[in-house]
Amino acid sequence: MERRIAAMDTSIPNAGRVYDYVLGGTHNFEADRQAAEYMISLVPSTRRWVRMLRMFLQEAVLRLSAEGFDCFLDLASGLPTVDHIHQVVPHARVIYVDNDPVVVAYGTQLLEGNPRVRYIEADIRDIDALLKSPVIPELFGDNRKVAIGFNAVTCFLADDEIRRIVHALYDWAAPGSKMFATFETKDPNLMTPRMQQFVDMFERMGSPYHFLTLEKSIELMKPWEADEPGFQPLAEWLGLQDQITEADREGVGLEFYGAILVKR
């Protein structure tokens, strides 16, 4: 792990560290900060939406913890910083997953000494291999009634990949398990040059990015069923409707949704 961190090329922006910077974190480098500021200059609402994504995660985790969930499997986690799951519910057992070896190495170092948290290096597109990881039963025991984080993920996956992952998780999880998820949507008929440049930046960081519609998001999450209150804009989840303006739609009908889903 230390060798990976030492070998890290900090002159190249990394999506996980860019996200950390936009959240207000400190685990990032100058290249990450420059990339983030450039993306914010293209899409000024980026910081607002990213912070709402993290606020939804916190709200969902607290709700699920209050329902009795104490095992959280979080997919495509990024860096475990800025009030991530293990900080919001410190009594819970948490497994973070990411496919970026540098993010995992750095994240593991940050979590050192916490016996209730693990970090798995895995690509969620190979979901079957991930679910066979010995780390899961080592930390969760035989408990498969778990809370699964699927946040800011669908924008980086093809539709068939989302379907396969969602079905595999449904088959693996015990009845009563829940998934807390977010979805990045826009009007499919609208695109601006600035938004296209924003999307292209993710491509250059090795993380191709695309938007779904709300209808497609709902379809792709089946057979999981939406728990109350269903698929709702993040601003409604958080009671912040008055803080989203037309300018935040960025001329493309930009909207972020959150949902808690359940396996009956």
What is the CATH H-level superfamily? Vaccinia Virus protein VP39
- What's the shape? globular
Q: What is the structural class? A: alpha/beta
Q: How many angstroms separate the termini?
A: 40 Å
CATH fold-level label: Rossmann fold
Main attributes of the structure:
8 strands, 264 residues, single chain, eight-stranded mixed beta sheet, Rossmann fold
Describe this structure in words.
The protein is of the alpha/beta class and 264 residues long. It has a single domain (54-262), classed as 3-Layer(aba) Sandwich (Rossmann fold), CATH 3.40.50. Helix content is 42%, strand content 15%. It is built from 12 helices and 8 strands. Strands 1, 2, 3, 4, 5, 6, 7 and 8 form an 8-stranded mixed β-sheet that branches. Helix 6 (101-110) links the parallel strand 2 and strand 3 (117-121). Helix 2 crosses helix 3. The radius of gyration is 18 Å and the shape is globular. 39% of the residues are buried. The model has no long low-confidence stretch (mean pLDDT 94).
